[in-house]
Amino acid sequence: MVEQFSDYIVSGSRNERYARIEYAHSRELEYYCHGRMLENRFPERLSWLLEEYDQLVQHVIMTLIDDVEEEIFTYDLHLENTGQRIHTLMLTGDEVSFFITPAFDEEDARWTEEALRERFGLEDQRPGEKE
User: What number is the average pLDDT over the span 42-60?
Assistant: First the structure.
């Protein structure tokens, strides 16, 4: 049985929560995760950018990928509880998949649970608890 995790996708640059998710790590591909969104609050622009990125990759239009990817990076997407940076995020209905980078390297050391609570003004609440 695959272990499921609950977390939030957050924007470090905008101090916003975008989605509450349940996900699992892939057994076949290191750093790849997949699951489902329980709550979706992605801004319209970011949703469009993610869809555009997916379409550019599928149609191998590499000349435009860098511009779209650069704007996606400005959101500084992370998993809230682990601090792991998210990239290549794909949304399909309520399904979500993404790659993560290892957490808590020198640059990500600021993403401790206490720092996230303070930065996002959150109380002692875990995913799945009533707000």
Answer: 93
pTM for the predicted model, two decimal places: 0.75
User: Are the beta carbons of 23 and 4 closer than 8 angstroms?
Assistant: yes
Segments forming the whole domain that contains residue 23 = 5-42+77-120
Q: How many domains does the chain have?
A: 1
Interatomic CA distance for residues 31 and 100, integer angstroms? 5
Q: Report the alpha-carbon distance of residue 68 to residue 53 in Å, rounded.
A: 6
pLDDT band at 89 (very low <50, low <70, confident <90, very high): very high
**Residue 63 located in a structural domain:** no
Which residues, including other chains, have CB under 8 Å from residue 39's CB and lie 6 or more apart? 19, 20
